[in-house]
Amino acid sequence: xxxxxxxxxxxxxxxxxxxxxxxxxxxxxxxxxxxxxxxxxxxxxxxxxxxxxxxxxxxxxxxxxxxxxxxxx
Length: 73
Prior knowledge:
About 65% of the residues lie in helices and about 0% in strands. It has four helices and no strands. The relative contact order is 0.05. It is mainly α and about 70 residues long. The mean pLDDT is about 90.
């Protein structure tokens, strides 16, 4: 859901001349890219254990057997 501030900015941006809209878009894209670079590289290992509660108490082989059986219709 868009915030009031977002809606106001969008309305104001829609009133800009085309060239300024393009400049604004380029500036926002640059800011987003820069913010992504500041966070640095992430490791896939950060996801280790995520969602473990979903699998708690399930037998892995039993789960695989059910899944494989569902593939055949």
